[in-house]
Amino acid sequence: MKKVFSVFSVFFVFSVFFVSKIFAQKVVSPNGQISIEYKDGAITVTDAGNTYIQSAAVGMTITKDGKQVKNPVKIELRAYDNGVAYRFVSKLKGEYTVESEQADFQFTQDYNSWFPHSTNYEKPQAMAFQATFDVAPISEQGPQLAFLPLAIDCGTAKLTLLESDLNAYPGMFVTTEGPTIKGWFAKYPKEMAYYRWRGMSYVKDTEDYIARCNGPRTFPWRIIAIAHDDTEMTSSSLVYSLAEPSRLSDTSWIRPGRVSWDWWNDWGLQGVPFKAGINTATYKYHIDFASRYGLEYIILDEGWYDSSRGDIMNAIPAVDLPALIEYGRQKNVGIILWTVFNVLDEHLDEACQKYSAMGAKGFKVDFMDRNDQTAVEMTYRIAEACARHHLLLDYHGIYSPAGLNITYPNVLNFEAVFGMEEAKWTERDKKGPVKDMPLYDVTFPFIRAQAGPTDFTPGGMRNASKADFQPVYSNPMTMGTRCHQMAHYIVHESPLTMFADAPSAYEKEPECTAFLASLPAQYSSMKCLQGKIGEYIVMMRTDNDGNYYIGVETNWDERDISLSFDFLPQGSYKAVMFSDGPNANHTATDWQCEEFIIPDSSFQKSLHLASGGGAVIKIEKR
Fold this sequence. Notes:
This protein has 622 residues and is an alpha+beta fold. It folds into three domains: 11-242, Beta-galactosidase, Chain A, domain 5 (Distorted Sandwich), CATH 2.70.98; 255-416 and 492-511, Aldolase class I (TIM Barrel), CATH 3.20.20; 418-450 and 460-491 and 523-622, Golgi alpha-mannosidase II (Immunoglobulin-like, Sandwich). Helix content is 16%, strand content 37%. The protein contains twelve helices and 40 strands. A hairpin with a 4-residue loop joins strand 13 and strand 14 (158-164). Helix 3 runs parallel beside helix 4 (321-330). It is globular and about 70 Å long.
């Protein structure tokens, strides 16, 4: 789903060379408030007279034929009303090597910041890009590598570091040195090896350089988004604006949707006359459920083929895949197949041709767990091949999005989020869960969501208070109330969103399930009405039929808010609201439903949120 925002004029400049003499170039935003200046190999970023980044050294070291190239790249600058960006441009011909890139964001003070750190301490560049945010001054965020996006509170504004148009180049990690955030890039793989489980490849050894190139090219955009209110953070579209435009001439076949998903609930059906598991009967039940509620897809997650042998070309005997695809076709439910990135890549044309011809609708591709140049190239290669065969993609176990879904719109979703799967194994101590998901739920929409859509996989029906939560693998709980969980479907941008619990769990909750199933697969616009990072969020979205949807979430703190409806056009509206029940602090599954009339846009409504609570509202014209 593309975000819909106002488009600002952009000023830009080319041809700034790295030379020994002083050279200065300054680019100013259309409103005259924000500027980025390049001078003698460093950038300075200013907003309304406040300098946040001062003389930050940026550059590249490139060798060709074993010799370092003098003045290897140009720098291109852009300034918007909500941020700045720069990138390097090379006009070199033939083959050359990027030995290193310097990106030292030297902040003028040791500001407070939100960093998602690598969860792998031995090989920090090899992990799933799933981490909560550590909040601390910049100087205290190192030395462990962190990944993008991350945010800095500069007092008068919050800045978010992102990247866009990441193609054939490693993604950026960062570490810190005092108040300076320093870019760090994974080295180019020299030797790959395989884990026996899943046939997943990993980097065994690396070269000393970060990228190989051939001929003229542009490098990724380095983005510094600027917001003067927390609500503005959610509306940044700079990653989308700076991405390479779509390479697909026909996108009419791309169909976002909602998905009945098997893995999170551990194939946990109840009250059925067959043994639930990875088998044809279980998936027919998922198809029946999806069809009954108008969901567009189901996913066959890990196990439909023998992943220990990487045998993607053959389903296991217990899964009659052609019969399932035909059964789904008759009920207007498509089937998406799980696989591992390198396994699909090693059988790419063969697998795409076979499963497209069979009638599958796409792949959920998992376990990349790295962002070096060859990994990034693989994501493009898979996206292009799947687009040729009209196959959708859900990129799981991957680095944060950086515009690929604009270039290849068949890539509908990305993980790179501390999502619902973490609830299956997040431990607790005497104070409660060690990893605070309600806190994360009202943090990442302000930061991670700026990069692109989110495969958070919501929809759990076993909801728990802070006191009651326990990690359970096969019958997992969620942290927070039922309505907090329902609000994810509006707060998140997720064009391929999961119904993560078992169909039998939803069938026990028909009112909540019917409401969630009535929400659009794709929204047309969004606006954050209220919110403060780490505390609460009120997100409004619209659909193409003129309906409005509001999702509200809070952290573990109870709170009262007043909802204003001044965004509504003239007229009278009817609303349906699910909100925390009077006993939700004690029993997190407690909810209440209310229908009310909004006579005009001056109407206001008070709302009480329980601990870890939430609310969802659907508004239609009368």
